[in-house]
Amino acid sequence: MAGESYNESFFRAVYVISVAAELAGVHPQTLRIYERRGLLDPKRTSGGSRRYSQRDLERLRRISDLTEAGVNLEGVRRILELEEEVMELKSEIKRIKDSKKEEVDETHRQYRRDLVPINQAVVPFMYYRFPIGNND
């Protein structure tokens, strides 16, 4: 999940609770419990019905993996929170790196503009040999 880019349909909430529960292999009441515990936040229709997205289903799979590994629901909530924070920080680091790379590239372009080949220099280059030792 981390580092992947998703299209808009990945986030579109289309599954009703019974379909989402069946796709995730859990009981609909489990989805309600996960929502109460802050593990899921499904979208709501104007009538208040829950709608789940593909992203929610992936999150459910992650929750299942963690609970099967013996992590309790509070631990799952904290792990998911930390994973999201890591993803946000990675995104911020990438944005900063890209910005700094562009600044370095611009500085290099400026250097190339400022450099003047010796044969085009305003002051001609003259080779001068310094004497070695004292020739008095």
Automatic annotation (TrEMBL):
Protein keywords: Coiled coil, DNA-binding, Stress response
Coiled-coil intervals: 72-106
Classification via CDD domains: HTH_HspR (cd04766)
SMART domains: HTH_MERR
Any single Pfam family the record assigns to this protein: MerR_1
Residue intervals of the HTH merR-type domain: 14-82
A molecular function (GO) term: DNA-binding transcription factor activity
Xref: InterPro entries: DNA-bd_dom_put_sf, MerR-type_HTH_dom, MerR_fam
Domain of life, source organism: Bacteria
Family annotation (PANTHER family): HTH-TYPE TRANSCRIPTIONAL REGULATOR YFMP, REDOX-CYCLING DRUG-SENSING TRANSCRIPTIONAL ACTIVATOR SOXR
Official protein name in the record: Putative heat shock protein HspR
Species of provenance: Acidithrix ferrooxidans
Name of the gene: hspR
